[in-house]
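Subject: Interface between my chains keeps coming out wrong

I've been trying for a while to get a sensible model of this assembly. When I model each chain on its own everything looks fine, but I need the whole thing in one frame so I can look at the contacts. Pasting all components below, labels as-is. Any help appreciated, I'm running out of ideas.
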Amino acid sequence: MAFSHSFEYFRPGTLAEALSLLDQYKGDARLLAGGTDLAVHIKENMATPPVVIDVKRVTDFPGSRVSPKALYLNASTTFSDIVNHADLRKAYPMLWEAARSVASVGIRNRATLAGNICSAVPSLDVAPALLCYDAIVHVASSSGTREISIHDWFISPRKTACLGTEIMLGISITAPAVKHSGIYLKQGRYRGEDLAQAGLGVLITSDLQYRLAYCAVGPIPFRARAIEAVLNGKVLTAELISSAKAMVQDTVHPITDIRSSKEYRLHICEVMLERGLKAVEQRLNGAEFDSAEILGG
Amino acid sequence: MTDYRYIGKSITRIDGREKISGAAVYTDDIDFGANLLYAEIVSSTVAHALILNIDTSEAEKLEGVVKVFTGKDFPYKFGLYMKDRYIFAQDKVRFYGEQVAAVVARTPQIAKMGAELVKVEYQELPAVLDQMEALAEGATILHPDLGDYPHVPWFFPKPGTNVAHWRKTRRGDLENGFAEADHIYEETYEVPRYAHCAIETHVAIGKFDYSGRLTVWSSSQSPHTQRNLFAEALAPMGLSQKDIRVITPHVGGGFGGKAGVTMEILPAALATKLRGYAVKLRWTREQEFINTYQRLGVVAKLKLGVKKDGTITALDHKIYWDAGAYVEYGANVVNAVGLSAIGPYRIPNVSIDSVCIYTNLPPGGAYRGFGYSEMLFGLESHITTIARQIGMDEIEFRRKNAILEGDKTAYGAAMNPNGLLEAIDKVTKAIEWDKEYKSTDPNKVIGKGFSLFWKAPAMPPNASSSAFLKFNEDASINLIISGMDIGQGYQTVMAQIAAEVLGVDPSKIRVETPDTDRNPYEWQTVASHITWSSGNAVKKAAIDARDQILALVERVYHMSQDSLYLEDEAVKCHNQASFNLPLRSFVVEGIATKDGSYRGGPINGRGMFMPEFSSASGDPDTSQGGHPNVHYTVGAGALILEIDKDTGKMKVLKAAEAIDAGKALNPDLIKGQITGGLLQGLATVLYEDMRYDDKGRLLNPNFTDYKIPTAMDVPDEIIPIIIEVPQPDGPYGARGVGEHTMLPAAPMIANAVENALGIRIRSMPITAEKVAMAYKKHREQ
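Reply #2:
Try treating it as a single job with all components included. I did that and got this:
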């Protein structure tokens, strides 16, 4: 695989070194974590950064912690790390399911959650989970650290609130205080790895609070708050689900692209909502099943 | 039934260990040392244009660039059946991605950087991206010089139009046939283009040395055909067949995409101008999608007449092929289907028009199935529908009209012996066709789909095979042949044939990949004809060696040849149980006589096969009179499909496929073909689709958006069924099965979708999206 684009390559060992390189090269540098996105873009001349800073060897990112109450995943965390984490799977099933649906094993071994979030593509599988759990993104620059709500993170396709002089350190999630469960539904073109035609995350709590977030059906992943408002405080009934479904057409604004027509996306968003609500309720009540089968595989 | 020692046994592949362990050498693995140069191709960025100027000056200045080439350096035409292609575009480009120039450099990176510096100035012409538009009055003509292109005598181009070839087949009285019908059904079916997606992309290395010899290493299904086409194209440079050597190491998948010559001509030609260097060209996945052969797109208009009792009285089948910018290979796909578009049915009154149409899309060419998948999608969808329309069971309808031995094919020759009825019956039973399938999930429904299939090898009437066989001192054998093992198990089966004749275990037979200098002629590994054709040549070579052995033993021991036979690596005698002469004692060194002199010497066998009964000289207006196809292989398939009504997601719960192999030389390999072929066919109907924008640019030249199945997408259960009605002229009765296994997949899915949901989808692919949206519309109506 030949690259026609040449760039300077740095591989800092510490966060401080990485940040100082970022300052030195200002907007000219791109960060490389797993490289599964950036390397492809450089190969295809879609990205031509003069400088690439590889953060794979940065050893002093704050450590990851997972508990049923809260979770912190640092910037080195790969999707395989998430998929192989039994406690995480149990406490945050939506995030786990989203991670499992990203690409294939080989890519998941390499690709990081941080790199993925920074890529900010509309079809970002983990975005619905982060939006539903109200995640916080932690970033650092040479002048200090700051926290960015996931709700402020996505600006437009491939653009985030993270500045060119900042490095993402990790994300944190605080679990709802009451009993809760979640699910991620992804519609792809086949059973193998695929980019989502549409994705939906659903979170439910025992006090009947609902959180819904879609991906791949708008320029950025988003919470469907109007639908949540209709559901909140109510027990799921066929009528309630019907009225929620009726709101989908006004809530999601997908486009037609090579992966799907706009019409199919709209249709699938309705199907997902109905099945997702029913499934997450069952899961809250202790049912165990593979969410990959819910949409027909 | 004859009792065979090695034939009909599921011998483990002889190339298996080599491939699994990583020992197998593929083209890209070969080390050429320091004098290896890398070529990068500058491709057209427009679908149809005049080339006004090519500025190579900036690229030439780049350090490490050795030389930049354009069409001016190689004003030579080439092509398999019709010479309509140039090595590089000359004054015009005719598809997005066509090769315009090449930068040859010291490293792949410099070559790529150099290619980005070449500036090509185009004057765009209207692009014709649809075959029906290309046929219309006033359409832009892609090849104004079509009338001057050399082609095989059985092609009928229409100069002044975009019709590169028109195969007409007429039989009986069509008008009368439709008059006899109680019911007539007409419909149009569409099939898009497809890509082969072999794991190994195309790669070739050319080297022209100071002795005047051009060697080309290539990943190819066609070493001898490549040599011949290189020699024809490069003849102006003084090269002849003897000067050109094509070496084809192991191939990482072909599926027809590596038949004939596509990009391999580039490093071959470039090398002739860079004496002493090896020049390598390897396609990226994107180039693999854009600039090799693609499966042709099809619009098929079908009109079928039937009586109340289900008898087919007439068929009018018009097939319009989007054959792309150059049709040197693809036109023969059109020809093959034009002779066979009756499907495996007995139809007295037939009209077939198979029209090969130039478009400004990449060249169409060979793809597993050679047009029959496209044709059968329409025909087998149509058959199921018309059976339902007249209230007849679709299997009964197929049984009633199934072509039998001796029935006339569309071109008037007699149908070969075949087990079509047996295939229908066995599939019906295996799939439990009469069983009520019902999903327990309220969101899902289950449908059943059935399809017949047939296909003949499409090849020139004189396509031939040959084989050499050398005995070694220990009675091991080198079998020297030129077919390619592209996964089908060719090497293993050829070893089994030689083993059977010579009484030597297949494990003692080594079959190597070809080198045209040393290996005897083979036309190409295409058309599912290699087991049959090369198998016959190998059998003859083995018989030749056996005859030499027996003649020698007769001469030395004065034993009648009739009493002798070969078994367990020894010559034995029916009349004298104690006689046992090990082959290893004499097959190289000869047999010692009492005076110390020797008789015999190294045993070398030679075999050749050409189907001398075949002829392509049918009447141009009716196709009657010739014998263009050597035989047809037939079969049947059925599947049980689970469909999610809302998402449209489909899952094949169970599939059965029966194929008449004549004689299964190695049953496990055939079962592997059935599984693999079926999966490839299912992928074309469920997921794959080449999508072009309105400028003729492929939108999905990658596996992100061109979906081929993963292990997760394999049907839950596949039941492979082998039928054995011997092919009289096949080795041990065998005929080919390789391509056929994918043929029934698309119509089976279309028929199962209709069975489950009551909607008929007439365009491929039948994706989840298409099913869901069609069903939604159906429900709303």
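Reply #3:
Confirming on my end. The longest strand of chain A covers residues 167-174.
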